[in-house]
Design brief:
With about 150 residues, the chain is mainly α. It folds into two domains: about 70 residues, D-Maltodextrin-Binding Protein, domain 2, CATH 3.40.190; about 60 residues, no CATH class. About 40% of the residues lie in helices and about 10% in strands. The protein has seven helices and three strands, in the order H-E-H-E-H-E-H-H-H-H. It has a three-stranded parallel sheet. Helix 2 links the parallel strand 1 and strand 2. The chain is extended and about 70 Å long.
Length: about 150
């Protein structure tokens, strides 16, 4: 499993055959981020799980799907290689050419431009909330010492 520990190690080793579900969002990610990687398209994840031939080295999937699969099939382990920074898009299905469609697009573009999307990603995905924050300066605490 050390060959999958970091993205650099995967790139260095090359020659891996990675299964990817046809039509999935990660097909393009696997092909573009790891040169020399052979992406084998499969119709569903069960094809990989049932593959006894050893022709597939790994399954490229989302962390959420991988977690569930590794719980159901403990003979498989989920690895998130160090150095992998992939953002999977969130999709809101809205009928095109409607006022709601225009509203959602405008709102998403505004949130991207003002940094809200990046701040939320930092907080919820990268764990920014877990970082210890120092309290704001306060006259009551810092000058008078009334509150600790």
């Amino acid at each position: 499993m050390k060959e999958f520990k970091t993205l650099k190690a995967i790139r260095r080793a090359g020659g891996f055959r990675i299964a990817c579900v046809e039509g999935g969002l990660l097909v393009k990610t696997g092909r573009s981020n790891v040169p020399g990687l052979e992406v084998v398209l499969i119709p569903n994840e069960e094809v990989f799980l049932a593959d006894a031939s050893g022709r597939l080295d790994a399954l490229l999937t989302t962390a959420e799907s991988g977690s569930v699969l590794s719980m159901i099939h403990p003979e498989f382990s989920m690895i998130v290689p160090e150095g992998v920074h992939v953002r999977v898009p969130v999709v809101i299905a809205v009928q095109e050419s409607t006022e709601l469609h225009r509203l959602v697009n405008t709102w998403v573009n505004l949130m991207r431009r003002n940094g809200t999307v990046d701040a939320l990603y930092e907080h919820w995905i990268l764990g920014g909330a877990a970082a210890k924050q120092t309290p704001r300066w306060s006259v009551v605490r810092n000058v008078f010492g009334w509150v600790k």
